[in-house]
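Usage

Read records sequentially. Each one opens with the input sequence:
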Amino acid sequence: MGRKNALRVVLIVGALVLGTLPGWVRAAPPAQEPGQNLLKNPGFEGISCNPASPPGWCYDNWNRDTFNGMPYGEIYTPQGWVTFWSEGTNPADGRPFGRPECKVIPNQDPFLGPPARVRSGNYAVQQFGFFRAIDSGLYQVVTGLSPHATVQASAYAHAWTCGDDEHGAYSCSEQYQMLFQVGIDPNGGTNPWSPSVVWAGGYSYDEYRMIGPVQAEVGDAGTVTVFLRATAKWSLKHNDVYWDDASLVYTTPPATPTNTPLPPPPTATPGPSPTPLPTPTPRPDGAIVHIVQPGDTLFGIALQYDVPVEQIEQLNAGSIGPNNLIRVGQELVIAIPSVTPTPSAPPPPPTAEATATAETGSVCVLAYHDRNGDTFRQADTEEPLPNALFSLGDATGLLGQYTTDGLSEPYCFTGLAPGTYRVTMQPPPGYVASGPSDMALALGTVGTLEVTFGAQRGEASDSGEGATGVIQPEPGEGESGSIWRQVLRWAARISGILLLLVAAAVAVVFVLSRRR
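and closes with the structure output:
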């Protein structure tokens, strides 16, 4: 008995000693591998389900979690996420944004489509505002990450935006009605309007497209927040957004935790000062440019310079990729001068010698018949238009003009030095522009930028009103033509009277013959 009791004492003491050891010598949690999705419920299929759910389905896979902690009857938040929205002022119309309705929708009618509202699995998320603009979305706080590792977030989304029901379940709004954004707060903050959030954005209507990706370095706390956000520009009848298949992954291997004690703290030595961001300087033509750095996004650059994202998109229309894709080292024009810059010295007179090393580019233009008015050209059905006048200019003034013939376009303005230019189109007589007819361009290095403007028949030419709709007399047709028209009208009237008299006489003869 004495030996058994001694063994028990040893085991108890050993357990107590292990329990007092610091946390860093205990078994560490398994590290996530690169490519593994770090989000909970990324496809909105649910985390815990009603036991009565049939196979493949997850009933009651939602909660009432909102950013202000208050439940709302019209908000069904997917498990693991939090619904947020803005009630501030919409800069487009000066009216406040509205609180959205939020649902976890099943892959059943009426969400089967077309267009399909669920991208994969059996569920997706829908947020919408009925006759109100929204600035809303979802966020999820992710903990236990490796500090200073790089993570990447993305999600798939599409919108249904339309002011009426005549187009069914398809969008009919302008191209920039609904802006989608995926963001990361590298320090785990939950304010979607914080300047620390790094964003990537894009537009997608009636079919799922990837929004993002966006990358960020995990902060010291090992916690980040992923945001899915959609912002409507106008208060349309249908402002519906759909999200599915969100993702957060490591792009660099996380630090592997060990079971060994932490080393003693290193001696505090001053590290190198952070390299300041390059200060943008105007180019000789007065344009403000930005050189894309690692981690930059179009939305973040717009915030840095306090300019609209649309302005950067328009100024760099020929160099930004799909979904606002930019690359490190790319030169983006942020703003162009509103007035002609004063040269520091008068330019030298032109010489007969050509500079063989000068790098030049081209701007090619085309006007087309935008039959469906969507501002996107379908080459097989929307033909080039003649008699459209294009003008090309820069900060110094007009550089050239061209009138289309509808056959030989696109026409290229060649020999253009790197700089900022503006192209305008005057539609052909009887037509009006179906979209923008004025565009600012940034020509970086040697290359070609293509500009297409659409036009539709104007109301004046369709209705017959206005100068273009007045029917003029044919050549040689003057006063004598109008006299002949009057003679013909009177002849027609007399012929009609004679026909009536003949018909009456026939009727009288018929009646008299019946009496006999």
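Summary fields computed downstream for this record:
- The longest helix spans residues 479-515.
- Residues 200 and 297 are 6 Å apart (CA to CA).
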